[in-house]
From TrEMBL:
<dbReference type="GO" id="GO:0051920">
    <property type="term" value="F:peroxiredoxin activity"/>
</dbReference>
<dbReference type="InterPro" id="IPR003779">
    <property type="entry name" value="CMD-like"/>
</dbReference>
<keyword id="KW-0560">Oxidoreductase</keyword>
<protein>
    <submittedName>
        <fullName>Alkylhydroperoxidase AhpD family core domain-containing protein</fullName>
    </submittedName>
</protein>
<feature type="domain" description="Carboxymuconolactone decarboxylase-like">
    <location>
        <begin position="21"/>
        <end position="52"/>
    </location>
</feature>
<keyword id="KW-0575">Peroxidase</keyword>
<dbReference type="InterPro" id="IPR029032">
    <property type="entry name" value="AhpD-like"/>
</dbReference>
<dbReference type="Pfam" id="PF02627">
    <property type="entry name" value="CMD"/>
</dbReference>
Length: 65
């Protein structure tokens, strides 16, 4: 389902918030932890897996340095 087409008035501000948060000076690992926790609270398994994968990818990337 393309949520941007179904409900643009909800999804577009959400995307904008996401972009603003990730462009901020907040620690990226903290942002990912918060995103994961919000997904857990919302009960969204897809988002939980997505954010956990992103956290793991960042964590593994830090080891290469």
């Amino acid at each position: 389902m393309n949520y941007a087409k179904v409900s643009p008035s909800i999804i577009n501000p959400l995307y904008k918030s996401y972009e603003e948060i990730h462009a901020s000076e907040l620690d990226q690992e903290l942002i990912l932890l918060v995103e994961t926790r919000v997904s857990q609270i919302n009960g969204c398994a897809y988002c939980c897996h997505l954010h956990a994968f992103n956290r793991m990818a960042i964590s593994l990337g830090d080891r290469d340095e």
